[in-house]
């Protein structure tokens, strides 16, 4: 009933090619199709979130295109003003001609003047003369537009750099999960580690079991979600996440893994998604870390190797080389086997206790009647 193979270290589990909803690094493998045009317009309305979530390559293209495009658009306006006033080189100018912009003689010099104005370089070679009211209004408009573009682009870059999901990159889960005995119960165990010394405040751990189910009415539900509770020895809320933690889920009658066994586990078709929510101590931003396990990544009858030790100087050391490694241990073949064996041991234990209290009947012992003893003591003189 209990199986124990020769002890050896199990290497970290390899990633399978099985299709999954959540990848090992937390990305959701889902695609949206047949979205109406009006729904696409919603992404444009929420432009800030759209710009923050796009890839860095597109942000860089947007950065270059926005600044270059604004410089060129205003250069066309400066060129138009100069041409309207007769300031270009090809135009005939009299001695009494009053220029609107000095040294703007063509489209190239107009572009350079637009760039110098918006970036506040001001080399001094090209400048307004103050004789044209339109140039004063245009330089005010371009300065305000330049400030707005600077703030917008700096905000996007800062927001992308400080995204909470970047903090989630420094939180890692074990490559595999294991099933073994813990505190007298059959449990599913996973490991999670915070690679930074700064803590995740208010950390909470929970899981979702995704599988395809069929209702009694014959309806097939794809990605049916079932809650899976995880906890540590100190509880399941407000984890003290200063060192790697081993999270466990007790497999009992209320567990979705209750019907599994060591033989049927690899044949199952489900995905266990594990979530860790917390608040970064240094930035006070909330983040979520997630990963998933398929049946081929759950090892029945294994236990994780210890990774925390204490050095001679009194410091605690974490050996991440054993973070995902496991070793075979004595484990029941299934939950039913464990419960049946436990029920059989319980009456025997109670009978043994009762026998200690009441004693054991000796069949060779006979009970006989002993008559009262005759008083042979006589007094003198009788």
UniProtKB/TrEMBL annotation:
It is a multi-pass membrane protein. The chain crosses the membrane at residues 58-81, 136-159. It holds the Pfam family IRK. GO terms for molecular function: ATP-activated inward rectifier potassium channel activity. Keywords: Cell membrane, Ion channel, Ion transport, Membrane, Potassium, Potassium transport, Transmembrane, Transmembrane helix, Transport, Voltage-gated channel. It comes from the Eukaryota. Residues 22-164 form the Potassium channel inwardly rectifying transmembrane domain. Residues 171-338 form the Inward rectifier potassium channel C-terminal domain. GO terms for biological process: nervous system development; potassium ion import across plasma membrane; regulation of monoatomic ion transmembrane transport. It catalyses: K(+)(in) = K(+)(out). The keyword Metal-binding does not apply. The record marks 150 as: Role in the control of polyamine-mediated channel gating and in the blocking by intracellular magnesium. It is found in: Cell membrane; Membrane. One of its GO terms (cellular component) is monoatomic ion channel complex. Belongs to the inward rectifier-type potassium channel (TC 1.A.2.1) family. PANTHER family: ATP-SENSITIVE INWARD RECTIFIER POTASSIUM CHANNEL 1, INWARD RECTIFIER POTASSIUM CHANNEL. This is Potassium inwardly rectifying channel subfamily J member 1b. It comes from Poecilia formosa.
């Amino acid at each position: 009933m209990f199986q124990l193979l020769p002890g050896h270290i199990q290497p970290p589990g390899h990633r399978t090619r099985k299709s999954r909803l959540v990848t090992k690094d937390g990305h959701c493998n889902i695609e949206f199709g047949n979205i109406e045009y009006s729904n696409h317009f919603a992404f444009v309305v929420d432009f800030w979130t759209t710009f923050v979530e796009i890839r860095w390559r597109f942000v860089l293209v947007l950065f270059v295109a926005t600044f270059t495009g604004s410089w060129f658009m205003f250069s066309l306006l400066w060129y138009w003003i100069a041409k309207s006033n007769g300031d270009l080189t090809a135009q005939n100018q009299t001695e009494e001609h009053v220029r609107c912009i000095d040294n703007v003689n063509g489209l190239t010099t107009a572009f350079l003047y637009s760039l110098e104005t918006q970036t506040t370089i001001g080399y001094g070679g090209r400048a307004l003369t103050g004789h044209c009211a339109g140039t004063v209004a245009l330089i005010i408009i371009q300065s305000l537009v330049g400030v707005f573009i600077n703030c917008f682009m700096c905000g996007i870059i800062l927001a992308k750099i400080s995204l909470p999901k970047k903090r989630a990159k420094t939180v890692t889960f074990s490559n595999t999960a294991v099933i073994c005995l813990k505190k007298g119960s059959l449990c599913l165990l996973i490991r999670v580690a915070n690679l930074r010394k700064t803590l995740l405040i208010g950390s909470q751990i929970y899981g979702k079991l995704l599988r395809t189910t069929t209702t009694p009415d014959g309806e097939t539900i794809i990605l049916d979600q079932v809650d899976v509770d995880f906890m540590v020895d100190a509880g399941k809320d407000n984890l003290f996440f200063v060192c790697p933690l081993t999270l466990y889920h007790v497999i009992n009658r209320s567990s979705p893994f209750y019907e599994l066994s060591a033989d049927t586990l690899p044949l199952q078709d489900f995905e266990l998604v594990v979530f860790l929510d917390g608040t970064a101590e240094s930035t006070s931003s909330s983040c979520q870390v997630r990963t998933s396990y398929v049946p081929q990544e759950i090892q029945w009858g294994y236990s994780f190797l210890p990774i925390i030790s204490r050095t001679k100087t009194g410091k605690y050391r974490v050996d991440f080389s054993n973070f995902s490694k496991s070793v075979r241990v004595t484990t029941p073949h299934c939950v039913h086997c464990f419960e049946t064996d436990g029920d059989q041991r319980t009456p025997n234990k109670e009978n043994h206790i009762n026998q200690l209290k009441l004693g054991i009947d000796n069949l060779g012992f006979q009970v006989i009647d002993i008559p009262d003893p005759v008083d042979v003591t006589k007094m003198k003189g009788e």
